[in-house]
Amino acid sequence: MSISELFASGGPAMVPLLFLSFLALSTIIERAWFWSKILTHEREIAGRVLEAARRDWDAATEIARKSSNQPIGRFLYSALELQDPDPEVFQLALQATADEELATMRRGDKVLEATIALAPLLGLLGTVLGLIRSLRDIRISDIGTDSTAGVTLGISEALISTATGLIVAITALAFYRLFQGFISGQAKLFRQSGNELELLYRKGWSQRHRAKPIQDAPANFAPPIVEEK
């Protein structure tokens, strides 16, 4: 049986299944290409920026700027580019950029989630419609005779849509869980590198903005006397 015959045997539910599988496949290819460009450089960039930040803050800023084509580079540079901000502002810059980058990494999740949920249901719908079509004209008196051979063939063909729906859903689920694992790893990397960078900044900021010692009061200075009433 050719692919076209297999598709025709699946019934009308194969049309939305084909459209859904095309969307899922496009999303999987796009996300796989996206992650292939990220996973090999993220930890290296974070390590270089943090190592430079321990010695020279300007050098760390330049490394992060040159790595702004990567999510971790944009994440670290969003705080490093600020001019002597308060530690709270520094932290907010990291948090806002992390949320934005993680949202970009989750792009396509809704398509895969919809495919996982809808593909089995569409396959089941196609099977039910095929069974209705196959059993519509059968009579009890025909059971056990040669006239039911076509019904048996029709039932087997009706199950094609269910098998197709399950294959599409299982494939989408496998890649969905894989991409979720990548996102979880990136969130952990953002949290670790962001916390370490913030700690380094807070140490340097406290040293630069340490309160100056109060100058010695003049020798002839005397505090005002408050008379008791």
TrEMBL record:
Database matches in PANTHER family: BIOPOLYMER TRANSPORT PROTEIN EXBB (PTHR30625:SF15), PROTEIN TOLQ (PTHR30625)
Tell me the compartments it is located in: Cell membrane; Membrane
Tell me where it mainly resides: membrane
This protein is called: MotA/TolQ/ExbB proton channel family protein
Where does the sequence pass through the membrane? 6-29, 111-132, 158-179
Q: What family does the Swiss-Prot or TrEMBL record give for this protein?
A: Belongs to the exbB/tolQ family.
Tagged with keyword Cell membrane: yes
Cellular component, GO, one term: plasma membrane
